[in-house]
Amino acid sequence: MCPLIMDNQSNERSFILSGFNEIMNFTVPLFSVTLLYYCVILFFNISLVLLIVFDESLHEPMYIFVSSLCINALYGTTGFYPKFLSDLLSSSHRISYEGCLLQAFIMYSFACCDLSILTVMAFDRYLAICRPLHYHSFMTKRRLSQLVCFSWLTPFCLFSINVLLTARLKLCGINIQRALCLNWLIFKLACPEADTFPNNISAYVIIVICYFHWLFIIWTYIYIIKTCVRSREDRVMFMQTCVAHLTSVIINVTVMAVDVMYLRFGSRDLPQSLQNFITLEFLIIPPVMNPLMYGFKLTKIRNRILSFIYLKGK
Q: Which residue range or ranges hold the G-protein coupled receptors family 1 profile domain (predicted)?
């Protein structure tokens, strides 16, 4: 089998996104719903970022991390929805080899960035509740910048290596069995004689790092809950600032675990539309749920939103 499609005129290598095969009968309603949903994602996340940027009273570590989470949502969804929408209106569902690798990088780095940002947020809440006397001396502007850089650069470096390792593989297939490109789906197209050992090592390293992120979050919440049990004031702070974060963590872990487990071990007998939905959960649920939860649960942000609505209504 020819490793990749070759376009005679442009000499462009490309994949076929087979995930569109069973949804083309619903193109118009699916396009309308997806476009509306993407606009909702853009509105919620951009609004929250602008609110935090222009309101100086929100220039605190927790809100900076929330804005970082929203920016990451914009980054990840922009890597998928515009291409998906254009494919719905097209009869050809191809994606270039380079475009496929780029989308795979964006998808994985977006998901891992979410986890990294939630991890530094857990550390921030741990310091604020369990070490309040040391909080301001430790969480300086420089330390805050370092934590934000860590939450972004770590996933970018990890998945740059991961995608570069995939790019060197000789491929013996052209059909991506979903509506988007993911590194694992490209990896499965590797020829039998291809050396995939470095890719496997890279994947295991990333999984271990993700597990350490989750374990760190669990460790911080064990200490946060122990502290809150002893103090009514800390319980109030926990309800105001930690519930939204803990909900985000649960959603993130659940969605990512389901996605990873299904990609690796899931049945192919399920309808294609359901397979697509399971794969796309991390692009559907967190980008809307995160700004909604933080917007309504964090008191300062909620008050700013309500005051803005009140002023506009006058």
A: 44-294
d(CA 241, CA 249): 13
**Total residue length of the chain:** 314
- C-alpha closest to that of 88 among 156, 146, 23: 23
Tell me, what DSSP letter sits at residue 80?
A: T
pTM of the model: 0.89
CA dist 235 and 270 (Å) reads 45
pLDDT 10s digits, 19-74 = 887 777 788 899 999 999 999 999 999 999 999 999 888 899 999 999 999 999 99
> Are 112 and 210 in contact, with CB atoms under 8 Å apart?
yes
- Based on its alpha-carbon atoms, the radius of gyration of the chain, rounded to whole angstroms, reads 21
Query: Is residue 168 within 8 Å of residue 90, measured between CB atoms?
Result: no
Question: Phi/psi at 8 (nearest 5 deg)?
Answer: -65, -30
Taking Cα atoms as reference points, which of 189, 146, 143, 148 lies closest to residue 170?
189
User: 3-class SS at 10?
Assistant: coil
β-partners of residue 95 are 15
